[in-house]
């Protein structure tokens, strides 16, 4: 976990956050959204540069248990809910940054969903957390499909069919 934490600490510090006392997930999201609010579509390039940096720093650790909720809980002494929110945020940001132009084209709506409809997105995180705890056959992938669909439904509801995954 040491390398993972070092990479994440650097990532969070890039946003001006204190890794020793990370803010609530909601405040973290507001920090990221403030970049796109201030810089517009070029703000996507800014937060994606942070995302690429942390992915490069982590290498194979990016898709390892070190980036799971339990690890965030251990590294940052977070609540279970916050650790799930932070840990599930990274794959979402990877997807966003791999589809930058799409993000830029729909930025205003996405920012609105992130800020104004956080409660709906949290339901998706809570559902996947429950589903993962209840896995009995070792299939830890299926709950993530439901998580993606849940978020897809939230964004489609507020941004229209053009954002459907």
Automatic annotation (TrEMBL):
Domain of life: Eukaryota
Protein name, as recorded: Secreted protein
Upper lineage: Eukaryota, Metazoa, Ecdysozoa, Nematoda, Chromadorea
């Amino acid at each position: 976990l040491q390398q993972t934490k070092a990479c994440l600490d650097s990532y969070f510090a890039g946003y001006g956050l204190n890794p020793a006392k990370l803010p609530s997930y909601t405040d973290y999201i507001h920090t990221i959204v403030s970049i796109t609010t201030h810089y517009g579509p070029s703000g996507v390039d800014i937060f994606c540069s942070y995302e690429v940096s942390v992915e490069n720093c982590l290498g194979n650790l990016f898709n390892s248990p070190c980036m799971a909720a339990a690890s965030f809980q251990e590294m940052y002494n977070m609540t279970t809910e916050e650790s799930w929110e932070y840990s599930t945020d990274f794959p979402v940001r990877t997807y966003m940054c791999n589809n930058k132009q799409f993000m830029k084209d729909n930025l205003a709506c996405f920012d609105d969903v992130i800020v104004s409809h956080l409660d709906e997105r949290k339901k998706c995180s809570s559902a996947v957390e429950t589903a993962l705890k209840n896995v009995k056959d070792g299939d830890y992938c299926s709950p993530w499909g439901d998580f993606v669909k849940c978020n897809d439904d939230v964004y489609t509801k507020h941004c229209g069919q053009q954002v459907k995954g």
